[in-house]
Structures are given as structure tokens and as C-alpha cells.
Design brief:
The complex is a heterodimer of chains A (305) and B (159). Chain A is built from eleven helices and 14 strands. Chain A is α/β, with parallel strands linked by helices and 305 residues long. In chain A, the strands form three sheets. Chain A has a six-stranded mixed sheet, with helices on both faces. In chain A, strands 2-1-4-5 form a four-stranded antiparallel sheet, covered by helices on one side. In chain A, strands 12-13-11-14 form a four-stranded antiparallel sheet. In chain A, β1 and β2 form a beta hairpin. In chain A, α4 packs antiparallel against α5 and α5 runs parallel beside α6. With 159 residues, chain B is mostly helical. Chain B has six helices and two strands. A two-stranded antiparallel ribbon of chain B has the order 1-2. In chain B, β1 and β2 form a beta hairpin. In chain B, α2 packs across α4. Classes of the chains: A alpha/beta (305), B mainly alpha (159). At the A-B interface, α4, α6 and α7 of A face α1, α3 and α4 of B.
């Protein structure tokens, strides 16, 4: 089952395509990180996934084929947009009441319990809560809906380090308890390394990298060796990004059948998620797409466990 | 050790987790700067705790949910670490209960360990008196360990 599936998905605002030819299949049970430069189309994609925007082209479905925005999809999907969307003049208790009445599923006990643990006074207006409390309130309301898919758009951008940790801990605990799928966009790469096990990298409205993190890391290496040999060696490699000094060069490469053994004088190092992400962000023309979801299903060997 | 899971379903699990005594003798920590993958850090911490006697057969590892909530990491990472330890034969999962230690890495009893430590301290003092600094001692021990493992290697001692 795929938590999110898109096929040639596109969104046009006026004459400009915010997202185009986006084909993706994010399997359920993952924490998928959506990464990309500002204006790459991350928020557009998330808005399409949760049904807040309608596609200009292509198809987007969630939770095993439910059209995004359909009643069945809405019941299973919860969304926390940037800047903790709350009615600032309503109290926490009123927000809870509102959310309960606007949704078919709502676990009031969970929501109240969470707010009590967080020390959020029920009679305090949402706008008077701290940034961390506001985002925790929005998250608690979203989780109380018992979603199968939780979508978070830059959830931690405004939070201090402790509030970030607590926010992610709440999300991760919810996964451990209820096994929901998560798609989140973020700029903070180091934080994603701890939580994300699936990476989707978007740039200029296109999907550039998509895959299971362990799989991506296993299939990339950094090769370090003499700069004079770098160019001739790179011809035999699937090079993503190279950094070179006068004497020494580092090349982030994709391991494939052509890679072969490392020549004398060269060392090979494993790559971190942050390093991998930065390398692809610096090289918008390099792409890693292990086939769209439908192809993945036909070739089960491609699916990492 | 008993674990009193609160009867309220879906209630305030976090608060009760904080209130009840930890079920495991150890707690995990993460070093983001180490460059060691997160799951491997968890594996190494369990092995380390086993070697030092913090964990004994029958002890419970932190529950996946508790580890996840305290470290803010993906549950799959903890599961991967526990699977790895299970493959090594060090732990076993009990359905519905958690993951428990089944083997130990330290084959030496605690009193013996204390005696070994005492004689090591005497040796370290001798090495210090002879003019070796900490790095020199580590180098010497590492090289001696290598000689022990590969007796054919004819290495010169550290000058």
C-alpha cells in the first residue's frame, strides 16, 4: 500500500508551473522527508496531497488509491500547515470543541490528555500560547483525529531546539503507538536524519530523488583521491557531485554495475543523509529515481526492507 | 519488575511513561556528531552495557515507544537495532512484553573483573612512571592486542 501516489502530477499558478510531471509512490509506514530549496514546490505538493489544492494535470491519491480531497481520504489524512494554523482568538478548549465537531473521528481523551501533559491551559487563547505550545496544540488536534497519514509542512521552522525535540518526539511516539505514515517537509537536514526513513527531494518543480533512506545510503559513496586522476576516473563513474582542491578530490558517486573496484590511491567512505541531500541540491541535473511506484511493484527486488 | 500500563486506552501515555519507573536498567543517548548511524549507536550502547555489567540476562531493553519518545527518533530505527541484537543472539523479543537480554558479553564475574582492574591500574602506573603518556599507552595496548590476536605477526614494540 502506498501512503501517497502521484502520476504526472502538475500544478500551475497562472502561467507558472509550481510543480510538474511529478510521479511518486511513497509506501505506507514510512516517515518521508520532503526536501528542496525554497520555491521548489514542496508546499504545493503537500497542498495537493491533502486536497487543499486541485491538480492542473495528473493524478494524486492517498492511502491506497483514495483520490486526494475525497471524503474517504479526508477521514484518514491530517495536516498541520506552516505556522501552526489555529484560530488565535479561540481558547485551546474551543479549538478542541471545534475540531471535534468538524471531524468524524476525534479522540477527545487523547487530545485533553496531551494538553494536560504539555501544561497548556484550556482557557488560554491560542494566540497567547508560546510558539512551541501552539505547534503542539495544532499537532495534538491533528493526532486526535487518529489519521493514517499525517502531513506536516515545515512543522518546526518557528520552534526552539527543545520544542523541536518535543514536537518530533510526539510524532514518533504516535507512530510507535498507531503505525501511521508521515510526510513532512523541512529545511533542517540534521533533524531529518534522525526521523526520516524515506527521502523525496524536489527542485524546480520536479522530483529529483525518491527512495528508502537506507537504500539510498547503501548505493552512494564518497571517493577520495588525487585530483589529477579525478576527471579520467569520473568518466567511469556515475558522478553526482565533485569537490576538488589542488591535490585532493572528493566525488560523491552512485554505486552501480559500472563502478568496479576502487583504484589504488583512492579511498571510499560511506555517505550521510545530509551529505547526500546537499550533493543533489547542488546538482539539480542529477537524479535518482528508482522507478515510479508502479515499476517498484513489478520489481520487488528494488524495494528495500 | 512490574510494568503497570495505565488502564485508560489512548490516554495520557507520555505522562504515565514519565511517572512510572523505567522498566529497563539502561537509557539510550545519541551523539549526533559521532557519524555512527543511529541504530548502530543503540546496538553499541547495549553491547557496552553488557560488557560493563549494567545489563544482565533477563533484563529488559527500553521499550521501543519509550526510546522513541525520549530520543525523538523513528521507531523503525529502534526496531532495526533490536533486530540486529537479536541476530547476534544477545536479546530475544517476547511478544506483547518487550525485548529482553538473553546472553552476556562479559564472561568474567564481577570480583574477577575488579581484580583485573586493580592489576591493570598497577601496570598503568608503571607505564606512566616509565614516561608513557595516555596516547602512548593506548597505542601500546592496541598493538599488544593485535599481537595477541595474530601471534605470527612479528611487530616491534612501541619505541
Amino acid at each position: 500500500m502506498n501512503a501517497v501516489e502521484t502520476n504526472d502530477l502538475g500544478k500551475r499558478y497562472g502561467n507558472a508551473w509550481a510543480l510538474r510531471e511529478c510521479t511518486l509512490a511513497i509506501p505506507a509506514g514510512h516517515v518521508a522527508a520532503l526536501v528542496g530549496p525554497n520555491g521548489a514546490g514542496k508546499s504545493t505538493l503537500l497542498n495537493l496531497v491533502v486536497g487543499l489544492a486541485a491538480p492542473s494535470a495528473g493524478i494524486v491519491t492517498v492511502l491506497d488509491g483514495q483520490p486526494a480531497g475525497s471524503a474517504a481520504a479526508l477521514d484518514g489524512v491530517a495536516f498541520v500547515a506552516q505556522d501552526a494554523p489555529l484560530y488565535k482568538n479561540l481558547t485551546a478548549s474551543e479549538m478542541l470543541h471545534l475540531t471535534r465537531n468538524l471531524n468524524r473521528n476525534f479522540d477527545e481523551g487523547y487530545a485533553k490528555g496531551r494538553l494536560r501533559e504539555l501544561g497548556i491551559p484550556l482557557d488560554r487563547k491560542a494566540g497567547k500560547l508560546s510558539g512551541g505550545q501552539q505547534s503542539q496544540l495544532a499537532l495534538s488536534l491533528a493526532l486526535a483525529r487518529r489519521p493514517q497519514l499525517l502531513v506536516l509542512d515545515e512543522p518546526m521552522a518557528m520552534l526552539d531546539p527543545l520544542a523541536r525535540h518535543d514536537f518530533m518526539a510526539t510524532v514518533m511516539a504516535a507512530i510507535a503507538d498507531h503505525g501511521l505514515s508521515v510526510v513532512l517537509s523541512s529545511h533542517v537536514l540534521t533533524e531529518l536524519e534522525r526521523v526520516a526513513d524515506y527521502l523525496v527531494l524536489i527542485s524546480h518543480g520536479n522530483v529529483q530523488v525518491a527512495g528508502v533512506v537506507d537504500d539510498l545510503l547503501a548505493r552512494h559513496r564518497v571517493l577520495t583521491g588525487p585530483a589529477v586522476e579525478a576527471d579520467s576516473y569520473a568518466e567511469r563513474l556515475n558522478l553526482v557531485h565533485a569537490q576538488r582542491g589542488e591535490a585532493q578530490a572528493h566525488m560523491l558517486v552512485r554505486i552501480d554495475a559500472r563502478t568496479g573496484p576502487v583504484p589504488p590511491g583512492w579511498e571510499t567512505h560511506p555517505v550521510s543523509l545530509e551529505e547526500l541531500t546537499l550533493a543533489y541540491l547542488r546538482e539539480p541535473d542529477a537524479a535518482w529515481l528508482p522507478g515510479p511506484g508502479r515499476a517498484l511493484r513489478l520489481e520487488p527486488t528494488e524495494v528495500a526492507n | 519488575m512490574t510494568i503497570d500500563k495505565p488502564p485508560r486506552p489512548g490516554g495520557s501515555e507520555l505522562a504515565s511513561a514519565a511517572a512510572r519507573r523505567p522498566a529497563s536498567p539502561i537509557a539510550f543517548r545519541l551523539d549526533p556528531a559521532s557519524g555512527v548511524p543511529t541504530y548502530l549507536q543503540l546496538v553499541q550502547q547495549v553491547e557496552h552495557a553488557l560488557r560493563l555489567g549494567y545489563l544482565k540476562p533477563g533484563d529488559q531493553l527500553p521499550k521501543v515507544r519509550d526510546a522513541v519518545a525520549s530520543l525523538a527518533i523513528n521507531p523503525n530505527t529502534v526496531l532495526k537495532a533490536y533486530r540486529d541484537l537479536e541476530t547476534k543472539g544477545l536479546v530475544a523479543g517476547r511478544p506483547g512484553q518487550g525485548t529482553f537480554i538473553r546472553a552476556t558479553l562479559s564472561r568474567v564475574a564481577l570480583p574477577e573483573l575488579a581484580e583485573l582492574r586493580r592489576s591493570l591500574l598497577v601496570w598503568l602506573a608503571t607505564a606512566g612512571a616509565a614516561g608513557l603518556d595516555e596516547d602512548g599507552i593506548v597505542a601500546l595496548v592496541t598493538s599488544a592486542l593485535r599481537d595477541l590476536r595474530e601471534p605470527r605477526g612479528e611487530r616491534e614494540g612501541v619505541a
